[in-house]
Design brief:
The complex is a heterodimer.
Chain A lengths: L2 H25 L2 H17 L9 H22 L17 H6 L2 H11 L3 H12 L4 H8 L3 H23 L3 H9 L1
Chain B lengths: L5 H12 L5 H25 L2 H28 L6 H131 L1
The chains are: A mainly alpha, B mainly alpha.
Chain lengths: 179, 215
């Protein structure tokens, strides 16, 4: 067995559940999170430039965040015919099922996906994974102070993006007026 | 412009942070990831088998070196030089006897390993394909049921609307008949009243005339 694969299997045992939970939070779909988790580990296994990775856990976490938001962007661009729209994998009674149906959650995640990469990572680590500023700073190779500033700016930007989404477009106003 | 305040954003983020997958789903995802990782490594081994060649080459090189050393030692200690053909035959038999079982064993191990990995990968792919197929079937079935239910609901709503309309028309007819009846009764009453009033007035007029004639 290669040392890379051994390392990845150890990472899977140690942080697999956390990574899967993170992917589920970002996709709001357990089935998609499962697929992305497999894709993530296969990519990590096949990647050639990651020989110098010091902290596999942090690297995998950041890759998972990017992978999940790539998926969200692809979903937004893809217009699915009705028959291809699948139902979420979770039960409707579960807290996850309730959240899946909440448009607000999807809207918030889409807005986070539109932020800069660094802001997005800090926001996800701080508010979705409830990690400390010091821990985030270690993972991103920044100081705790920089992470605090980045987090505060990310919240401001997120508010801006969400507020713009709420504002009706001129076209929408014209359509309503014509009716 | 509609503004979202920071409290609402924090509230949404908090709700997102509370999203957790089930334990069963987590275990399943981890197992599938482990299988996929092993299967991908198996495919990599299947595509590039340099390890087997490398090991056999090392073994062969070691055997040649040992035989060479033996030959040089023998040559130095032997009183007469050996025949080249005899030496070739000795080398051949020695190489064959030392390398053949090792190569056979190595090949067998590698083949077993490769077969096992390929089977594991195939099994995993088959499982995934089956899951996808079941998912597709369930989706198709659900869609058909939804169409049927929608059609039946539309039909029942139309029937209900027709019944409602018929009941309304019937009710209107009843009301119109009642009004007609009331109208005719009122007309009769008025005619009777007029007749009686006229009779009374006639009687009064007759009485007055008789009083005047008496006076």
């Amino acid at each position: 067995m290669r040392s890379r694969q051994k390392e990845l299997l150890e990472l899977l045992d140690k942080s697999g559940a956390d990574l899967y939970a993170l992917l589920t939070k970002l996709t709001l779909r357990e089935d998609i999170a499962e697929e992305l988790m497999q894709e993530l580990f296969i990519k990590l296994n096949n990647s050639t430039g990651s020989g110098k990775v010091a902290n596999w856990n942090a690297y995998a976490r950041r890759s998972a965040i990017n992978l999940a938001f790539d998926w969200r962007r692809a979903q937004k661009q893809k217009v699915l015919p009705l028959e291809q729209v699948s139902e979420p994998a979770s039960n409707d009674d579960s807290p996850l099922g309730k959240l899946v149906h909440s448009e607000e959650m999807q809207q918030t995640l889409d807005a986070i996906g539109r932020l800069k990469k660094s802001s997005r990572e800090v926001l996800v680590m701080r508010y979705l994974q409830q990690e400390s500023y010091d821990n985030i700073a270690k993972q991103l190779g920044k100081t705790s102070h920089q992470v605090r500033a980045l987090s505060s700016r990310a919240i401001r930007n997120l508010r801006g993006v969400l507020s713009n989404e709420h504002k009706p477009s001129k076209k929408e106003i014209r359509n309503v007026a014509n009716k | 412009m509609s503004q979202i305040n920071e409290n609402e954003i924090h509230d949404r983020l908090k709700r997102l942070s509370q999203v957790e997958p089930g334990q069963e789903a987590t275990n399943r995802a981890m197992q599938k990831t482990r299988d996929a990782l092993i299967a991908s490594e198996g495919r990599r081994v299947g595509l590039t088998p340099p390890s087997l060649i490398g090991r056999v080459m090392k073994l062969a090189a070691a055997a040649v070196l040992m035989i060479g050393a033996g030959f040089i030692g023998g040559r130095l200690s032997a009183p007469e030089p050996l025949d080249v053909q005899e030496l070739q035959a000795i080398l051949e038999s020695s190489l064959k006897s030392s390398l053949e079982p090792a190569i056979r064993r190595q090949l067998q191990d590698e083949f077993d390993n490769h077969l096992q990995l390929t089977l594991s990968a195939e099994h995993n792919m088959l499982k995934q394909e089956l899951a996808r197929q079941v998912h597709r079937d369930v989706e198709t079935y659900t869609e058909q049921i939804l169409k049927e239910v929608s059609f039946l609901t539309d039909q029942r709503l139309m029937n209900f609307a027709r019944m409602l309309e018929a009941a309304r028309i019937k009710e209107r007819r009843h009301i119109a008949a009642a009004f007609d009846y009331m109208g005719s009764r009122l007309g009769d009453g008025l005619v009777t009243l007029a007749t009686r009033t006229d009779n009374l007035l006639d009687a009064e007029r007759t009485d007055q005339m008789s009083d005047v004639s008496e006076n």
